[in-house]
Design goal:
Layout: E1 2-4, H1 10-22, E2 26-30, E3 45-48, H2 54-61, E4 66-69, H3 77-90, E5 95-99, H4 111-125, E6 129-135, H5 146-152, E7 154-155, E8 163-164, H6 169-181, E9 188-192, E10 198-199, H7 200-211, E11 216-217, H8 222-229, H9 235-246, H10 259-264, H11 271-277
Parallel strand pairs: 1-2, 1-4, 2-3, 4-5, 5-6, 6-9, 7-11
Antiparallel strand pairs: 8-10
Helix pairs in contact: 1-6, 2-3, 3-4, 7-11, 8-9
This protein binds NADP nicotinamide-adenine-dinucleotide phosphate.
Residues 5-12, 29, 31-32, 50-52, 70-74, 80, 99, 101, 112, 135, 137-138, 141 line the site of NADP nicotinamide-adenine-dinucleotide phosphate (NAP).
Length: 282
């Protein structure tokens, strides 16, 4: 039995669909029972609970062999993931597959990848088998720019000159499903990226070609982005996202990796394929 956390989220739901198609026994943890109908017909166990709470962690992990650890970025993410790992070790779980970040390394200052790095360290020290799946920037992040693209023909990040090798979440889910299936993969870290390093100007051109209109990337200030996010995110998340996007200028996401193709024996999808296949751009 695999416990899938974050199953209602973007990556988690895509992964649940794959596990269901494979006929892999799995359990999803939901915070809100009203989300349960999204999983009807998938043949999975459903448990409801807030994983910041010890009782919910115990209940979710009972009888589980593997955990697929995916959680949202929030102030308690690091502590919650570390508590899940500790509980997993106590309950005799064999392997944890963690969704981390390609930017998670000891010198990173931005709090989100820093917290992924700390969780990776805890997982490595736990004695559990592990696989770290460390994706680059998600192509789906671009969808949040659609209102601005529709209204102004442009989008902006505080990231002048930045480049990324962004990856499609559908590929992240394919990759995680393959890793969960292959129990011979243990104590490994996989950096997964898309097939090309692109500047945001090139991203804008690709989106514009798909939409049939001119789209521009305009670098903004960190303060501009902060003002924009304030209405949607809590103060911790606002600061965390601003610092993450501002750090793109450090070019740490301008990195290609062969790990995706080595496991899946096919190249990851390009941005052009992503926008061509996404209803938001059609
Ligand atoms: N965006 C990127 O470019 C990028 C790149 C690399 C790595 N990542 C990492 O990917 C992860 C996010 O993946 P995603 O975008 O697929 O996630 P997402 O769509 O934000 O979904 C997050 C999931 O976490 C669940 N959750 C949050 N708090 C919870 C709690 N206390 N108890 C139980 N469940 C809880 C949410 O449940 P509810 O539905 O109840 O809210 C939801 O299912 C983050 O760790 C991020 O750092 C992102």
């Amino acid at each position: 039995m695999i416990l899938l956390t974050g199953a209602t989220g973007k990556t988690g739901f895509a992964l649940a669909q794959r596990l269901s198609r494979q006929g892999t026994p799995f359990r999803v943890n939901l915070r809100n029972s009203e989300q349960a109908n999204r999983f009807s017909g998938m043949g999975c166990d459903i448990v409801v609970g807030d994983l910041t709470k010890p009782q919910a962690r115990r209940q979710a992990l009972a009888g589980v062999e593997q955990v697929c650890l995916i959680l949202a970025n929030f102030e308690g993410q690091q502590a919650t993931e570390q508590a899940i790992i500790q509980e997993a070790a106590e309950q005799g779980v064999q392997r944890v597959v963690k969704l981390s970040s390609i930017e998670a390394h000891p010198d990173i200052k931005a709090r989100i990848p820093q917290s992924h790095f700390q969780v990776e360290q805890s997982l490595k020290a736990s004695g559990l088998d592990y696989c770290m799946v460390r994706p680059n920037f998600f192509m789906q992040n671009l969808l949040a720019n659609m209102p601005s693209i529709q209204q102004n023909g442009s989008f902006s990040y505080p990231a002048a000159g930045a480049r990324t090798a962004m990856i499609d979440i559908e590929d992240v889910a394919d990759f995680m499903a393959a890793v969960l299936q292959d129990r011979s993969l243990r104590d490994q870290s996989f950096d997964i990226s898309g097939p090309e390093i692109l500047s945001f100007e090139q991203v804008a051109t690709t989106i514009g070609q798909q939409l049939g209109r001119e789209v521009a990337f305009q670098a903004c200030s960190a303060k501009d982005l902060e003002d924009k996010l304030k209405g949607y995110l809590d103060p911790w998340q606002t600061e965390a996202v601003v610092e993450l996007l501002s750090d793109l200028v450090l070019d740490q996401s301008a990195r290609l990796s062969d790990d995706f193709e080595a496991v899946l024996k096919r190249p990851p999808r390009s941005l052009q394929e992503f926008v061509a296949g996404s209803p938001a751009f059609n």
